[in-house]
Every structure is written in C-alpha cells, then in structure tokens.
Design brief:
Layout lengths: L1 E2 L2 E2 L3 H20 L8 E2 L1 H8 L3 H13 L4 E2 L5 E2 L5 H22 L5 H20 L2 H16 L5 H20 L7 H14 L3 H30 L1
Antiparallel strand pairs: 1-2, 3-5, 4-5
InterPro entries: GntR_C, TF_FadR/GntR_C, Tscrpt_reg_HTH_GntR, WH-like_DNA-bd_sf, WH_DNA-bd_sf
Organism: Ruegeria spongiae
Pfam family, one: GntR
C-alpha cells in the first residue's frame, strides 16, 4: 500500500532504517566526512539511502539531540561551524581520555590485535600516498578505536566517540592537507604495543593528537586572517 506514491514503512522497519542512517551519518561525522557548517539535505540523504524522508529526519534529530549536529532557526540541520574555543576544549579532553584508554588497552592487546593494527597502518600509508584523504581518515579512526576498545570500558568508549563526533568537522578541515606525521606517530604506538610499553604508547597517541591540533589551529588562524 502506498500514500502519495511513498511506501508505507512499518514501525519496526522504520526503526531499522533510522538506525542504519543514524550510524552512517554518525560514523561520517566521526572521521571527517562532513565539513564545518555543511547543511544536510534530508531529501537528498533519503534518496541516497533508498528510503522515505521520515527515518532520515528522525536519525538526524537524534544527532541534534547529541549536539553532533545543529538545528538552525530556519529548521535546517547543519554541521557545527568552526570555533577555536571548541577545538581547544574538545582536544584537551580527548587527549586525557585517549591517553587513559591506551594505557589500559595495551595489556589486553594480543599478537592478533597487533597484526590487525599493522594491516590498518599499511592500508593507511597506501591511502596517503594515493591522496585518498577521506579513506585515510576512515583508516585513522579504525586504528585508534581498535586500540581504545581493548581498554574494555564501554563507558570510556562512549565518551571518546562523543568527542570524535565533535572533532570530526575540524578533522575534515585538514583532510586535503598532505601530512605524513600520523604514520610516524602510529609506528611509535605499534612499537610500544609490541614491547608492552603502555606509557610510551599513550605518549605517542598524545603526540598524534597534539600534531592534529596544531594543524587545525594553524588553518583556523589562516582562515580568520583571510576574513579580515
């Protein structure tokens, strides 16, 4: 049965589609797929997802409630704009939590986990060499969370994921820059994990995050200078 040529979706189906769209947009935000200030077109997203308007609206509404997206006065949903204050605040807390997660994860990582991390790192290196920036950011997220999840703390992972949601638009701001520093820091992390040195692994994660923060600050300062 259809109404106005739109398929009628059962409640159970609608929830399943909503969850899928929610997770896809959420993951996209976390690894920098969406740019700061970008407006999300609900009907275009619905068309891409092969679904109706309502589950997309509901999925994005969940992300607005989580403050990962903003609802503008005209009811448009958008990615948050750039802010140096937010960047500094988010990265300060990220560093604390991600260092802590790494310290607790190293003792739980197996040889199989280390092999998987090495594979992610090799793929990331290839993507950087090819200039596949968005794919590189996906690999970067996979690398970090493969470590953090070994801390075996759902609460900690939830907090880190929330911060990555807020950090994603800023990460996207730098995605067209060629930066090989992540490879260096990730290699330091891998070496520390291999030797069971949790403190060195955490320090390398901190250096990785600090380097990203420095790049974002520099680009924000350049953007502000160009506006004046």
């Amino acid at each position: 049965m259809t109404v106005d040529n739109q398929p009628v979706v059962s409640r159970a189906q609608r929830e399943t589609v909503q969850d899928r769209i929610y997770n896809e947009v959420r993951n996209g935000l976390m690894f920098g797929q969406f740019a700061p200030g970008q407006k999300l077109k609900l009907r275009a997203l619905a068309k891409d997802a092969g679904t109706s308007y309502l589950p997309v609206r509901d999925a994005l509404g969940r992300l607005v409630a989580e403050k990962a997206l903003h609802l503008l006065p005209n009811r448009t949903i958008a990615v948050p704009e750039l802010s140096r204050e937010v960047v500094d605040d988010v990265w300060r807390v990220r560093i604390q939590l991600e260092e802590f997660a790494t310290l607790n994860a190293v003792k739980n990582l197996t040889k199989g986990d280390l092999s998987a991390l090495n594979s992610i790192q090799k793929e990331m290196s290839k993507k950087i060499a090819k200039g596949a920036h968005l794919e590189q950011l996906k690999s970067n997220k996979a690398f970090h969370f493969a470590i953090y999840e070994a801390a075996r703390s759902p609460v900690l992972i939830g907090l880190i994921e929330n911060l990555w949601l807020q950090a994603g638009p800023y990460i996207s701001f730098t995605r067209n820059m060629k930066d090989d520093s992540k490879i260096h820091f990730h290699e330091e992390v891998l070496l520390a994990i291999e030797t069971g040195d949790a403190k060195s692994a955490a320090n390398a994660i901190k250096s990785d995050l600090m380097q990203g923060l420095h790049l974002i600050r520099a680009m924000l300062e350049e953007a502000e200078a160009n506006e004046t």
